[in-house]
Write a structure and sequence with these properties.
The chain is about 35% helix and about 20% strand. The chain is built from nine helices and eleven strands.
Amino acid sequence: MDNRNIKNDIIAGRNPVFEAVKSGRSIDKILIAKGAKNGAVIGILAKAKERKIPVKEVDSKKLDFLSGGAVHQGIVATASIKEYSSVEDIFALAEERNEPPFIVVLDEIEDPHNLGAIIRSAECAGAHGVIIPERRSATLNYTVGKASAGAVEYLPVARVTNIAKCIDSLKEKNVWVFGADMDGTDYRECDFSGGVALVIGNEGKGMSRLVREHCDSIVSLPVKGHIDSLNASVAAGILMYRVAESR
């Protein structure tokens, strides 16, 4: 029996998880109950290791909640609602439209509502794709799909192992990389014409030091109120439309 909850991004039970991993389906991570590394689970974990799928031990109560009461046998996988694209797919879309690349790079955006909102704004602003890291990031789950209002079906989203290295590869393709941070050049004074990658950092920590160092330029949004920063998806939306205006 394929035990899944109604959100369709949770796969519960040993056989369903094993078949999902074996089939090559895009799996974000596997969660196993503490003490459940035995029997058939060992074979599943070996296959997951081959595919470099993250595995995490959690309390069994968490699996009860995720599986919506289905029999999970100590193992649950979270799957993407859509297959991830490649960075090459993003460049191909830009070429198909005969436009300089416009890419949104997300450095550890963890809130799925923020990720969905950013994907929605990116699609509306004419971006060619979004890039996220494989680890420490929200994934293409049901919540993200809902928050994107369907935009995830139209905009390529690629996952990479290392954001800093990815930024370097974008530069090699004549893409100018702008990192968003509080301490930077006023976004209204920046030239966003040509190939552009816009980097948005984590909701709490912002961009990592290494990612910031790899950016060509740092841009900021002026803040005049008592709160010193904007929500990540709001800031991303403002900057994306500034890029669109410049193009």
